[in-house]
């Protein structure tokens, strides 16, 4: 295989040797270092192949000894020169094609971001662009490691970034940091997170400010983090020094305050409903280039009411943006339905229940639910209010005096 | 003189366990199936006909008989032959 290649590059000649005692010429050629291939004896002489560079040497040997040497075939690039010269345009076109392919493949055409959860992918793209990686950027204008380092330095939420270049497609893979929860470690109170009636108080640390049965409003201190020490009845105070007064001190209040709280859910349903449903659909395509806009597919449409959906697909190229517009036009058909009061009530109650469910965590204990129709009978709409009574822990830590979060 | 030198070289080659085709210029023939023969350390071609090929060696010559014999490649000390081989004979 390699031999074939060199034959093509160097050029190979097939010759015919005529005369008596042809082996002598072959041995002389061998002694001079001429390689001979594919020797075949036929009636009209000895046929074999030599490299084109060895032809003159072989010819002189043959002539000196009175043999006849004739070229029967020429092969290889050197012999195609004349042909290539005649078809210069073809050669130039092929070269331009290869150069263009190489040139265009050295740009970034597509960028993808994967692995983002909280960080906005566009934020990552903008940051990467600042380090030279953007759609249409030449590959030699940015360094992979620099972009990776820049991403990590500029976006503090990232813990890992990898820029993967595959041909004209770049994939930025990131992993976000998982931060520990904000834990209050300094002294703090436990305050009510919402209004309610206290059912049960359990103090682990701190001083209780409320008792079962108390009505509290959101923000009231339930368990105080400031403790006023009481003199121990078992310690006898020194009469000379007078009663010992200890100073109040602060703690991080801990405990659980269960309270009866209320959640409300509201839902409504009109008796006469007008619904819009999609009907016929028409799709148009057109291509927008920096020079002109080309319509690829167009359809006539006559809709009274329609909704348009416009999709864009843009490719940023060094010569400008090429955008494929896809326009989907969907007819909107009106549909009117009338509901009875009972049906509307069920729908409204269902909506109210959904709202309520979203507010109440499923883990909480619901004691009682009340349903109330708020609308008057003459209203064209049914309004439902659902109230759920729930017992939950309303204690919420709040730092004393402005608070210090996450103190080490 | 020449004979003694050759004997000495052979003894040395045997003692040092060097392949003899390297030291003594002996021919090395590789036959693959019935269709291919590689011959190293040859001394030129004596006769080439489609049914008989005689190749000179450092001592004597080798005669290959067959049908449609062809010399695929011919180099200073290597030769590659193809064709249907019937016999390989050594002559002094």
List the helices and strands and how they pair.
The complex is a heterodimer of chains A (408) and B (92).
Chain A: H1 2-10, E1 12-18, H2 22-31, E2 36-42, E3 45-51, H3 55-64, E4 68-75, H4 77-86, H5 88-104, E5 110-114, H6 121-130, H7 144-154, E6 158-166, E7 169-176, E8 188-192, E9 196-205, E10 207-208, E11 215-216, E12 221-224, E13 226-227, E14 249-250, E15 254-270, E16 272-288, E17 293-297, E18 306-317, E19 320-338, H8 341-359, E20 365-373, E21 381-393, E22 395-399
Parallel strand pairs in A: 5-7
Antiparallel strand pairs in A: 1-3, 1-4, 2-3, 6-7, 8-12, 8-22, 9-11, 9-15, 10-12, 13-14, 15-21, 16-17, 16-19, 18-19, 20-21
Chain B: H1 2-16, H2 20-23, E1 28-32, E2 36-40, E3 45-49, E4 52-56, E5 61-74, E6 78-91
Antiparallel strand pairs in B: 1-2, 2-6, 3-4, 4-5, 5-6
Quote the distance from N terminus to C terminus of chain A.
72 Å
Unreliable spans of chain B are none
Order of helices and strands of chain A: HEHEEHEHHEHHEEEEEEEEEEEEEEHEEE
Radius of gyration of chain A: 45 Å
Distance between the termini of chain B: 20 Å
Count all strands of chain B and give the number. Answer: 6
Shape of chain B: elongated
Structural class of chain B: alpha+beta
CATH topology of chain B: Immunoglobulin-like
Question: What does it look like?
Answer:
The complex is a heterodimer of chains A (408) and B (92). Chain A is an alpha+beta fold and 408 residues long. Chain A has four domains: 2-81, ACT domain (Alpha-Beta Plaits); 110-176, Ubiquitin-like (UB roll) (Roll), CATH 3.10.20; 186-271 and 339-408, no CATH class; 273-337, no CATH class. Helices cover 24% and strands 43% of the residues of chain A. Chain A has eight helices and 22 strands. In chain A, strands 11-9-15-21-20 form a five-stranded antiparallel sheet. In chain A, strands 2-3-1-4 form a four-stranded antiparallel sheet. In chain A, strands 10-12-8-22 form a four-stranded antiparallel sheet, with no helix packed on it. The radius of gyration of chain A is 45 Å and the shape is elongated. The two termini of chain A are 72 Å apart. Chain B is an alpha+beta fold. Chain B has one domain: Immunoglobulin-like (Sandwich). Helices cover 21% and strands 52% of the residues of chain B. Chain B is built from two helices and six strands. Chain B has helices spanning 2-16, 20-23; strands at residues 28-32, 36-40, 45-49, 52-56, 61-74, 78-91. In chain B, strands 1-2-6-5-4-3 form a six-stranded antiparallel sheet, with no helix packed on it. In chain B, strand 1 and strand 2 form a beta hairpin. The A-B interface holds A 22-23, 26-27, 30-31, 33, 35-41, 46, 48 and B 44-50, 70-76. Strand 2 of chain A pairs antiparallel with strand 5 (61-74) of chain B, so a sheet runs across the interface.
């Amino acid at each position: 295989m390699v031999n074939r290649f060199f034959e093509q590059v160097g050029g190979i000649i097939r010759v015919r040797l005529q005369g008596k005692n042809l082996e002598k010429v072959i041995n002389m050629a061998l002694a001079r270092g001429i390689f001979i291939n594919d020797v075949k004896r036929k009636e009209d002489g000895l046929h074999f192949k030599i490299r084109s560079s060895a032809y003159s040497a072989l010819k002189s040997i043959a002539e000196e000894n009175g043999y006849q040497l004739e070229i029967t075939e020429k092969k290889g690039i050197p012999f195609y020169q004349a042909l290539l010269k005649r078809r210069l345009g073809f050669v130039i076109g092929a070269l331009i094609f290869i150069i263009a392919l190489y040139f265009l493949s050295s740009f970034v055409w597509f960028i993808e971001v994967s692995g983002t959860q909280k960080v906005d992918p566009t934020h990552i793209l903008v940051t990467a662009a600042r380090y030279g990686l953007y759609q249409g950027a030449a590959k030699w204008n940015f360094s992979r490691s620099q972009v990776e380092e820049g991403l990590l330095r500029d976006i503090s939420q990232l813990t890992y970034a990898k820029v993967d270049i595959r041909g004209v497609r770049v994939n930025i893979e990131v992993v976000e940091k998982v931060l520990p929860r904000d834990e209050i470690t300094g002294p703090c109170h436990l305050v009510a997170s919402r209004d309610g009636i206290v059912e049960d108080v359990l103090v682990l640390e701190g001083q209780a400010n409320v008792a079962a049965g108390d009505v509290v409003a959101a923000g009231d201190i339930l368990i105080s983090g400031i403790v006023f020490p009481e003199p121990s009845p078992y310690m006898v105070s020194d009469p000379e020094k007078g009663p010992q007064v200890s100073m109040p001190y602060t703690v991080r209040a801990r405990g659980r305050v269960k309270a009866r709280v209320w959640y409300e859910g509201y839902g409504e349903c009109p008796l006469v409903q007008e619904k819009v449903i999609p009907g016929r659909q028409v799709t148009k395509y057109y291509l927008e280039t920096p020079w002109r806009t080309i319509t690829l597919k167009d359809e006539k449409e006559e809709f009274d009411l329609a909704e348009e959906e416009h999709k864009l697909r843009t490719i940023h190229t060094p010569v400008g943006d090429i955008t494929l517009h896809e326009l989907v036009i969907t007819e909107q058909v009106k549909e009117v339905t009338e509901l009875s009061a009972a049906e509307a009530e069920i729908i409204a109650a269902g909506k109210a229940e959904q709202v309520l469910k979203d507010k109440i965590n499923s883990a909480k204990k619901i004691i009682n639910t009340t349903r109330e129709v708020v609308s008057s009978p003459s209203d064209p709409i049914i309004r439902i209010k659902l109230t759920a009574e729930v017992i939950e822990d309303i204690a919420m830590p709040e730092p004393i005096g402005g608070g210090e979060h996450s103190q080490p | 003189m020449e004979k003694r030198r050759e004997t000495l070289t052979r003894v040395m080659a045997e003692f040092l366990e060097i392949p003899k085709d390297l030291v003594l210029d002996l021919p090395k023939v590789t036959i693959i199936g019935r269709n291919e023969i590689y011959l190293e350390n040859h001394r030129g071609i004596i006769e080439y006909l489609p049914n008989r090929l005689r190749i000179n060696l450092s001592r004597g010559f080798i005669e290959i008989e067959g049908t449609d014999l062809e010399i695929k490649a011919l180099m200073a000390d290597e030769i590659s032959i193809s064709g249907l081989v019937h016999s390989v004979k050594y002559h002094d």
